[in-house]
């Protein structure tokens, strides 16, 4: 076994991983990571990306740019045109991002799972009782982005964003080790709630990007998060932002999670299975 394999095997142990990513002072770590990742010094940049590659399966072959100003610039990279074909079937809601499929399925009333054996309530996540009722007995899919994945998220269908809310919170890691140990983790972390209305059918589909450890930032193209969204808090702001299926909506400053909610008349596609990898533009849900 190589030295790299030994190190990765030790770090992959759940107890070790949980302590390293959650028991350190998270907000201090976030501020430091945010500052350090933006250093535009070639040696710092190259060493940082090299270490990142050592500990992950980072693949930059699909990146639009071959050179990056900083590690943060690499985190938030764009893809080459055509790197993610978008399923154009009018009955298909596509994945808004590259991800690993987590908890998914039918919502039991307003109860759903963050991982097997650990549940949470939809009103606690959305902080909007009326919106939670829209998804009573509906469908959901949890999409977890790892640190090496493409970090931008896109429209799952032709839609109009009608309302966006920001809910402040913690920055727990969102990997399985933390999901098994932290009760109602998604309801505790920083998150945004994007309420969209599908152009063709009028159905209300919501995306909930959830922040996590390290830079923990959520950015949107159509709302200034720092100046408009955060001051409005859970009351949110009204929008009228139009998107075509596959259009970019925003990005994460680091890997995290998006939970997608749809009404009961949607069904999950056959490729949605625990632990499966899914890419932006691939089928997620289907209109029944």
What would you say about this model in short?
Helices cover 28% and strands 29% of the residues.
Cα radius of gyration in angstroms: 18 Å
Strand content: 25-35%
What order do the helices and strands follow? Answer: HHHHHEEEEHHEEEHHEEEHEEEEEE
Number of helices: 10
Mean pLDDT, to the nearest integer, reads 88
Main structural class: alpha+beta
How many structural domains in the coordinates? 2
Please count the beta strands (DSSP E, at least 2 residues each).
Answer: 16
Low-confidence stretches: 10-17
Query: What is the makeup of the main sheet?
Result: 8 strands, antiparallel
Distance between the termini: 50 Å
Taking strands numbered 1, 2, ... along the chain, how are they ordered across the largest sheet?
11-7-8-9-13-5-2-15
Level of helix content?
Answer: 25-40%
Shape: globular
Word description of this protein:
With 288 residues, this protein is α+β, with helices and mostly antiparallel strands. It folds into 2 domains: 3-75, no CATH class; 92-287, no CATH class. It contains 10 helices and 16 strands. It has helices spanning 3-12, 14-23, 26-37, 42-55, 71-75, 122-126, 129-134, 176-181, 185-188, 225-232, and strands at 92-94, 99-106, 111-115, 118-121, 139-144, 152-154, 159-167, 191-198, 204-210, 218-220, 237-243, 248-252, 257-262, 266-268, 277-278, 283-287. The chain has an 8-stranded antiparallel sheet with strand order 11-7-8-9-13-5-2-15. The relative contact order is 0.19. Mean pLDDT is 88; it is low at 10-17.
């Amino acid at each position: 076994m190589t030295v790299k394999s030994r190190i990765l095997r030790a770090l992959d142990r759940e107890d070790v991983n949980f302590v390293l990513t959650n028991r350190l002072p998270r907000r201090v770590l976030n501020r430091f990571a945010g500052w350090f990742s933006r250093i535009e010094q070639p040696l710092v940049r190259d060493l940082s990306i090299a270490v990142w590659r050592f500990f992950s399966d980072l693949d930059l072959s699909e990146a639009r740019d071959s050179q990056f100003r900083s590690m943060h610039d690499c985190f938030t990279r764009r893809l080459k045109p055509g790197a993610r074909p978008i399923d154009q079937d009018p009955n298909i809601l596509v994945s808004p991002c590259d991800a690993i499929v987590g908890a998914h399925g039918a919502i039991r009333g307003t109860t759903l799972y963050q991982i097997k054996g650990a549940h949470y309530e939809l009103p606690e996540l959305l902080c909007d009782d009326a919106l939670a009722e829209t998804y009573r007995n509906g469908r959901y899919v949890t999409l977890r982005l790892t640190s090496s994945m493409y970090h931008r998220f896109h429209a799952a269908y032709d839609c109009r964003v009608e309302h966006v809310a920001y809910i402040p919170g913690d920055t727990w890691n969102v990997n399985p080790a933390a999901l098994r140990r932290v009760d109602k983790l998604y309801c505790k972390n920083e998150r945004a709630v994007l309420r969209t209305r599908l152009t063709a059918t009028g159905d209300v589909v919501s995306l909930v990007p959830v922040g996590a450890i390290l830079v923990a930032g959520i950015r949107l193209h159509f709302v200034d998060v720092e100046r408009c969204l955060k001051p409005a808090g859970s009351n949110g702001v009204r929008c009228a932002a139009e998107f075509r299926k596959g259009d970019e909506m925003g990005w994460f400053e680091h890997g995290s999670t998006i939970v997608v909610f749809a009404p009961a008349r949607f069904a999950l596609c056959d490729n949605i299975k625990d632990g499966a990898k899914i890419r932006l533009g691939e089928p997620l849900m289907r209109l029944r």
